[in-house]
Automatic annotation (TrEMBL):
Alphabetical list of SUPFAM superfamilies matching this protein: Protein kinase-like (PK-like)
Any one of the GO CC terms: nucleus
Span list, region Disordered: 1-24
GO molecular function: ATP binding; protein serine/threonine kinase activity
Keyword vocabulary terms for this entry: ATP-binding, Kinase, Nucleotide-binding, Serine/threonine-protein kinase, Transferase
Domain Protein kinase, chain residue ranges per copy: 74-347
Protein name: Calcium/calmodulin-dependent protein kinase 2, putative
Highest taxon, organism lineage: Eukaryota
Organism (species): Perkinsus marinus (strain ATCC 50983 / TXsc)
Transmembrane domains' residue ranges: none
Amino acid sequence: MTYSTSPGASGLPQQQQDDQRRHQKVCSKNCGTYAPSNTTSPPATDGCCIPQWLGHPRRLKSYAVFEPFPEMEYRKVQKLASAIHGKVYLYEHIPTGKAVVVKKMPNVNVIQFDPRMLEDAMTEIGVSRYLATSTSGEFIARAFGIYQDEEFTYFMSEYSSGGELFDHVVNAKQFSEPVAKKYTWQVLRAVKSLHCNGIVHRDISLENTLLHDDGSVRVIDFGQAVLLNNPEGPTPNTPLLHSGRAGKAYYRAPEMYHGHYLGAPADLFAAGVMLFIMTVGTPPWNQASVADARFRYVAKFGVVKLLTSWQKAQLMSPELLDLLGGLMCVDPEKRMTVDEALDHPWFDDCDCEEQPLIVHSPRSLTPP
């Protein structure tokens, strides 16, 4: 079974033809520098008023393309976990001996979306494939293959032996500022990489952040991802409004409880809650809604006041307190952006190597 976009008369996928026409229409109103491409690679956009647009996925699920599972090349080692749509296994790639993760899901769970579940397996597969073939994917778990037989779908990705960052926080009780700083910076870089490529995660959390073999993190689980901008809008940077709750209750932004909201600020709020839990050792609330007394306190007085009442603020640097206040700001319009967070003074002494984000740099989707 294959899900792909059929080519049109020009030989290009219909989706890309539609994008090119829309790109040309918008560009002609602005800078007029658009030059159509007859290849499936993203066209050059130097100097164009809307760079990076064509590479952004208009329909996240349309990137889900399946191949036959190369069963003879892999050996199942053990079960790692149960997931909403199936089970997660550790496999060995026999030719190289390298470990990979395979999420095995019944096809019915992949093809038929159950609205009662927050996560959509087809969206996760489509987003992961798009990111694996289109971006640098900095601190994002890389997909190696998406396979399907008559009964099951196999979603293969890189293996991070350290497990969930959540478990490390639980074992350590809380992280020191230098440790939390390293992981927070990497998560923010992952968020920026996603946003630069038109994706909002909506489920950023310690549970969805794995510790990789080299000590860095990998953000996983794109089943609740959505588009950052509206592909039907008058400009490529027209924000797309979303509705409905997503993510885990601790990390869920307060605006998710009140109608429509923008995706990017919600990801930053979740990153702030991650930082709070890492440095304090406990969540700030059960949920960021008026039904929660601690959230009502933070909404009125701010997160620093809450930490002061817990006698935690005096144990933290002023820079950390300021960053927490900016990321966990209740008002999404006043909340820090990802660039503001990465440029925050708290990271000035961070031992982190910043690599330039690469957008639209195609790479193969192959096992190690």
